[in-house]
Amino acid sequence: MSEVVPFLQLMVTAMVPFILAAQGTMLAGRAGIFNVAQEGMMVLGASVGFLVSLKVGGNLVGLIAAALIGAIFGLVLGWTTTKFGLDQFVISLALFFLATGVASLLYKVVIGVTLTPPLIDTLADWKIPLLGDIPVLGPVLFNQDGMVYFAFLLSGILYWLLYRTNLGLKLRSVGENPKAADSLGINVARTRIVTATVGSALMALAGAYLPMVYTGTYTDGIVSGRGWLAIALAFFGGWRPQYILAGAAFFAGMEVLALRVQVAGVAVPHQFVSMLPYVATLLVMMFAMRWARVPGFLGGNYDRESRTAH
Amino acid sequence: MTTLTLSPGAVRAGASRVVPYVIAVLFAFLASGVLIAVLGHDPVDAFRAILTSSFKSSFGFVETVQKWVPLVLLALGFTIPLAAGKYNIGGEGQLLVGATAAAGVGIVFANLPMVVLLPAILLAGVVAGALWAGIAAWLMDRFGVSEILSTVLLNFISFGIVDYVASEVWSDPAAGHPTTIPVGDGALLPLIGNPSMHSGVLLAVLVAAGTVIMMRRSVAGFELNAVGANARAAQVHGIRIGRIVVGALVMGGALGGFAGAVEVAGIHGKLIEGMQSNYLLLAIIIGLIARGNTLAVPFVAFGIAVLEVGASAMQRSAGVPSEMVLIVEALILFFLLLSDVVGSRLRRSER
C-alpha cells in the first residue's frame, strides 16, 4: 500500500496534461477540425506560462496567458481552414513550427543562456476538507493542485455539453455531417472556429502545467512527445470525453511507470524504459483503431458550394 | 522559332506559380523584420547575416551544401508518401536508425577496405530506415493505425535506441555526451571538389534526380500520384492501393535511413545523440513549401539550408537568437498558403 498511493498520486498529476490536450483535440475534432499542432501548442504554453509566471508573478496569471496565446493560434487555425478553406493538416503543421520557434525564441529573449535557470513556484496542493481524509482516495484524488480538479471537472462538463445539451448535439453534427448541419441553420464555420480556439487554449494550458508542476522551469524538450500522445489518446478514447479521461489514466500510468522503474534501478537499461509510453501507445493503437469511432467529417473542410455529397 | 515564343497564357501560368513564392518570402521577412526590430536589433544587419554567410566564404558554402544533403533526402522522404496522400512525420527516427545501423556496421567491420565497407554502411542505413518506416506502414495497412501517429511515435522510440547504442554498446567515454567510438576509415565518404566537401553531396544529387525521374516517368510514380489524386478511381483502374501506399512509406523511410548513413559517413564519422538536429521540421517545411513537387524540393532545400547556416551568423553578428530563423521559415510556409487564397480569389474575380 505504501507504494501504491504515491504511484497513484503521481499518476493523477501526470494525467492532467494528457486530459487537457486530448480533450482540446477531441473538442475541435468533434466539430471536424483535426488539429495536429498539440506538440507546438504545448511547448508554447509551457514557455509563455513559465515566463509570465516568473516575470509578472503568480501561476494563475501564467496559466491565463498561456491559454490566451493558445487561443490565438487556435483562432488562426479555425479561421484559415473555414474561411479560406486551407488544408487543416498543413496549417496546423505550420502553426506547430511557428509555435515551436516562438516558444524557444521567447525564452531566449527573456531569460537568455544561463547556467542556473530561474525557477517558479510549483502549484500548491489544495486539500479538499473531509474528502481529503478518505484513505487512499483522499490523497490520490482530493489532495492535489487546482489544475487536477480543473481537468477532471472539464471532462465532466464536456461530457455534459456534448451529450446532454442541444448545443452539443449541434456541435457533433457539424463534425459528422456539416452539410446536414448547415441545412438546419447551424453556423458551421463559427462552430469550428470556436472549438478550434478553445481546443488550442486547452492544449496550451496542458503545456503550461509542465513547468508549473514538474520542473519549475522551461526547457525546449519539456513536452517530449506528450502532444502527439494526446492525439493518440483522442483516438484511443473514441473522441468521447469520458473515455479520454479513462484513457488518460493509462497514458499517465505508463509515464509514471517508466519514471518509477528508472528510479528503482531495475536491470533493464533506462533507455528502453523511457521508450515504454511510446511502445505501449503503438501497441494499444493496433487494437484501438478497430473499435474507435472517429467523427465522420474529421479533417475535412466544408465547402457549402461543393457539389459532392458532403 | 516557335519554341522560344511564349504564349501570354504560359507566361501568366508561370507567373502565377512564382508570384506567390515571392510574395510569401517578402511578407515573411517583413513580418520577422518587424519582430527583430521590436526585440531591439537591426533587421537589415540580421538579414544580411542570414542571406550572405553561405556565400561569403568557401567554409560557409561547404557547410550549406553539406547541410543541404540531409535536408533534401528527408524532404524527399516526406514528399514521396505525400504524393500518395500519406504523411511521413518519422524522418527523424528513420534518419537515426539509419545512422545507428551505419555506425554499427562501420564500427564492427572497421578493418574492411573502403570498397566493401562504404557501400555496406550506406546499404545498412537504407535498409534500417526502410524497415523502420515499414513498421509504420505495416501498422497502417494491417491495423489501420494512422501513419501520422505511428511515424511520430517511432521517432521517440528511436531516441532511446540511439541513446542506448551511444552510451552503452559502443560508447566513447571521453566524449562527455552519448557518442560512439569512430567508424573505420574505410567507412568515411571521400572528399571531392574544390572547396572540398564530402561525396555524399554527389549521392544526394543522384538520389534527387532519380526520385524526380521515378515520380514523373515511371509506372510506379504514376500509380503513386494516381492514388494520391483519387484513391477510389485508382483502385477502379486496377492499382493496388495498399501496396502503393506501403511502398511509398517504405521508400520514404529508406531515404531517411540513407540520410542518416550519409551523416555518419560524411560529417560525424560516428553516432552522436542529437545528430538529427531539427532536420525533420525543416524537411516537412521544405516538402510543403515545394507543394510536394519533387523537382522543386532540392531548390527549396537549398534555400532553407542557406537560412539555417545564416542563423548562427545572425546570432553572432546581429545578436538575434537563431530561433528567429525557424519563425521566418514557418512564416514563409504560412504566407505561401495564404497567398493561394488571395490568388484564387483574384482569379475568380477576373472571370
Provide a descriptive summary of the structure in words.
The complex is a heterodimer of chains A (310) and B (351). Chain A has 310 residues and is an all-alpha fold. Chain A has helices at 4-30, 38-57, 59-82, 88-110, 137-141, 146-164, 166-176, 178-183, 188-215, 226-236, 241-264, 270-291, and strands at 125-127, 143-145. Chain A has one domain: ABC transporter involved in vitamin B12 uptake, BtuC, CATH 1.10.3470. Chain A contains twelve helices and two strands; from the N terminus they run ααααβαβααααααα. A two-stranded antiparallel sheet of chain A has the order 1-2. The model of chain A has no long low-confidence stretch (mean pLDDT 91). With 351 residues, chain B is mainly α. Helix content of chain B is 75%, strand content 1%. The radius of gyration of chain B is 21 Å and the shape is globular. Chain B starts with 7 loop residues before the first helix and ends with a helix. The model of chain B has no long low-confidence stretch (mean pLDDT 91). At the A-B interface, helix 4, helix 10 and helix 12 of A face helix 6, helix 11 and helix 13 of B.
Shape by Cα distribution of chain A: globular
How many beta strands in the DSSP annotation of chain A? 2
Can you summarize the main beta sheet of chain B? 2 strands, antiparallel
> Low-confidence parts of chain A, pLDDT < 50 over ≥5 residues?
none
Q: Which series of helices and strands of chain A comes N to C?
A: HHHHEHEHHHHHHH
What is the radius of gyration of chain A computed over CA atoms, rounded to a whole number of angstroms? 20 Å
Structural class of chain B: mainly alpha
Radius of gyration of chain B: 21 Å
Residue windows where pLDDT falls under 50 for at least 5 positions of chain B: none
Write a short abstract of this structure:
With 310 residues, chain A is mostly helical. Chain A contains twelve helices and two strands; from the N terminus they run ααααβαβααααααα.
Give structural attributes.
heterodimer; A: 310 residues; ABC transporter involved in vitamin B12 uptake, BtuC; two-stranded antiparallel ribbon; 71% helix; B: 351 residues; mainly alpha; 75% helix
